[in-house]
Write a structure and sequence with these properties.
Blueprint lengths: L1 E2 L4 E2 L10 H9 L8 E5 L5 H9 L4 E5 L3 H12 L7 E4 L3 H4 L7 E6 L13 H7 L6 H11 E12 L3 H10 L3 E9 L6 E9 L7 E6 L1 E3 L2 E2 L1 H7 L7
Parallel strand pairs: 3-4, 3-6, 4-5, 6-7, 8-10
Antiparallel strand pairs: 1-2, 7-9, 8-9, 11-12
Length: about 240
């Protein structure tokens, strides 16, 4: 059990446990467009969808999860939350979901699998959650283009080394960045992650900044505390 301020997560059946990436995305994702409908692609525990339920007034929050154990856990976490009437999880892969899209979404989020290296473990469930071949970036961008409403926002977190490639792929689908935050563990470490938000309208002077998580072990920066204080119990 992982407890946040307004909800709790069971994660014993999920290959990928609650991690900084998911929490960052859930807290950082822009919701200035007051989304009515949200889609979380690759729900895992459901934490990102739950964070967005807490942050927004969206009436329809859908999530996709292909792994059966994670799907069932996500459903349980949704049902046990204060927003169970707004959350729904589909046990389906992205490719199948986009074959007959019924809805457009004002906000699409994803913390996609992104270990593209050839290394695989002996745990197939964990590999599926961690490796990009389960959900190639181009498939993700194509789906976002198909499912995003006219004024919608598409937000995700990826390795920084993939940022340039991802921006180029998104541009080919006429999805343009409106906000980029690059994440460093400490002031002296390399940039590890990129938080990216896209819309269909091209923005010339969009916001690019850097987020540092901690100055030393468990000494969190004011910026990180401000971002996550509505969720973490100890912030």
């Amino acid at each position: 059990m992982f407890s946040f301020k307004q909800f709790s997560i069971q994660q014993d059946r999920c290959a990928m446990k609650i991690g900084t990436d998911g929490v960052l995305l859930g807290a950082w994702t822009p919701i200035e467009n007051n989304p009515f409908s949200i889609l979380d692609i690759g729900a895992g525990t459901g934490v990102i969808a739950l964070m967005l339920a807490q942050r927004s007034n969206a009436e329809q929050i859908d999530a996709l999860e292909i792994d059966e154990e994670a799907y069932e856990q996500s459903v349980d976490n949704f049902e046990n939350s204060p927003w169970s009437d707004r959350l729904f999880c589909f046990h389906v892969g992205l490719d199948e979901f986009v074959e007959e899209p019924e809805d457009e979404y004002d906000l699409i989020v994803s913390n996609p699998p992104f270990y593209t290296d050839d290394y695989k473990s002996d745990n197939e469930q964990r590999d599926l959650a961690r490796f990009a071949d389960a959900m190639p970036f181009e498939d993700l961008i194509e789906a976002a283009d198909l499912l995003l409403s006219e004024n919608g926002i598409f937000a995700l977190i990826i390795p920084f080394k993939e940022e340039e490639n991802f921006l180029a792929l998104a541009s080919a689908y006429e999805l343009y960045p409106v906000k980029i935050t690059r994440v460093k563990g400490t002031p002296t470490t390399e940039i590890k992650r990129s938080l990216l938000a896209f819309t269909r309208k091209e923005t010339i002077d969009f916001q690019i900044d850097t987020l540092i998580i901690e100055t030393s072990r468990h000494q969190y920066t004011p910026q990180y505390i401000e971002l996550t204080k509505d969720f973490y119990l100890k912030m």
